[in-house]
Write a structure and sequence with these properties.
about 350 residues, alpha+beta, Rossmann fold, Dna Ligase, domain 1, 3 domains, 5-stranded antiparallel beta sheet, 4-stranded mixed beta sheet, 11 helices, 16 strands, cell wall biogenesis/degradation, magnesium, D-alanine-D-alanine ligase activity, ATP binding, ATP-grasp
Length: about 350
């Protein structure tokens, strides 16, 4: 009998996107093929403890009582890091072996998980893992550095300014360079947390203060009139990189955290209603952006289609939302790769890529 592959599904974390990570993990745990994989759910609490959170996916992903969190009362565990005993997951209380991992599926959104920190730990542990490596994870998490690299690669990005930690807002300079409206956001955040649209200059300082609740480094961008569309990029085990059909989130008003995850008023349009020549151009740009940022495994590339011009890259997300209703799996489903097969592909690619310099 063929031994099942042991997959550590790591979720939760100390970032403000903890709850969204739990929702993504619940979907992945429910959809992993139990005939092929032994899934081991490892939650990271908001305090940073690693625990064995064995709640069923339907409980972990339940939003009826509010957004879920990792069960802080679950048994604490620790992952062996090093070339000896690599991949061993043991209980902290008595050292009992829980599992020996073959591969890790990180489902951590935001800082301290999606930003290269966990990826570096897994490199030390000599454990293959799903998704981008240390550099791409870190560079894509910091939207200011991402835009520098994309622009250096000849890719279209919109006007922006970065505010370093503690830097005062130079309103006069922003008036000259960016104009109104503006979007102010944490430089290293996600899930629309801390994002504020500014339509009056007197509201700018407060918007910066809101963003700094999530990150001392802030990004200020020109508001681009037009549509927002997204493209899912996937690396296959043989090294091919392909882009999906496009998707669009249609909402009646501002697309914020509540609209995304609580109000259930957003509508997904997949494929997006975009002409084929333009869609083909965007897919090609998405693959170029993926390669420019040295991504691997997967990324979602978000675009603006400006009213008076072509596509502009907004950002790359190296661990996008992974619920069954999230755009990334939906776009691949409409491209011909269902959720379960998508998970298979990501895990197989992780094994094919391996760890270390490559």
């Amino acid at each position: 009998m063929t031994r099942k592959t042991t997959v550590l599904v790591v979720f939760g974390g100390v970032s403000s996107e903890h709850e969204i990570s739990c929702l993504s993990a619940a979907s992945i745990l429910a959809q992993l093929d139990s005939s092929r994989y032994e899934a081991v759910p490892v939650g990271i609490t908001k305090e940073g403890d690693w625990v064995l959170d064995r709640r069923p996916p339907e409980v972990l992903g339940d939003k009826l009582g509010g957004l879920p969190q990792v069960d802080a009362s679950a048994p604490r565990v620790a992952l062996a890091v090093g070339r000896t005993g690599s991949g061993e997951l043991r209980q902290v209380s008595d050292g009992a072996l829980v599992a020996t991992a073959d591969v890790v599926f990180p489902v951590l959104h935001g800082p301290f998980g999606e930003d290269g920190t966990l990826q570096g730990l897994l490199e030390f542990a000599n454990l293959p893992y799903v998704g981008c490596g240390v550099f791409a994870s870190a560079a894509c998490m910091d939207k200011t550095q991402m835009k520098v690299l994309l622009r250096g690669g000849g890719l279209p990005v919109g006007p922006y300014e970065a505010l370093a930690p503690g830097e005062d807002v130079d309103e006069a300079a922003l008036r000259d360079r960016l104009g109104l409206p503006l979007f102010v956001k944490p430089a290293r955040g996600g899930s629309s947390l801390g994002v504020v649209k500014v339509e009056r200059w007197e509201d700018l300082p407060e918007a910066v203060a809101v963003a700094r609740k999530y990150d001392p480094k802030v990004l200020v961008e020109t508001g681009i009139a037009g549509r927002e569309v997204e493209c899912a990029v996937l690396e296959f085990p043989d090294g091919r990189v392909e882009a999906s059909v496009l998707g669009e989130i249609v909402v009646p008003d501002a697309y914020d955290f509540e609209t995304k995850y609580l109000n259930n008023i957003a509508r997904l349009q997949v494929p997006a209603d975009v002409s084929e020549p333009l869609a083909s151009e965007i897919r090609a740009l998405a693959v170029r952006a993926f390669e420019t940022m040295d991504c691997s495994g997967l990324a979602r590339v978000d675009f603006f289609i400006a009213e008076d011009g072509g596509p502009i890259i907004n950002e790359l997300n190296t661990l996008p939302g992974f619920t069954t209703s999230s755009l990334y799996p939906k776009m691949w489903e409409q491209t011909g790769l269902d959720y379960s097969k998508l998970l298979d592909t990501l895990i197989e690619t992780a094994f094919a890529r391996g760890v270390g310099l490559r």
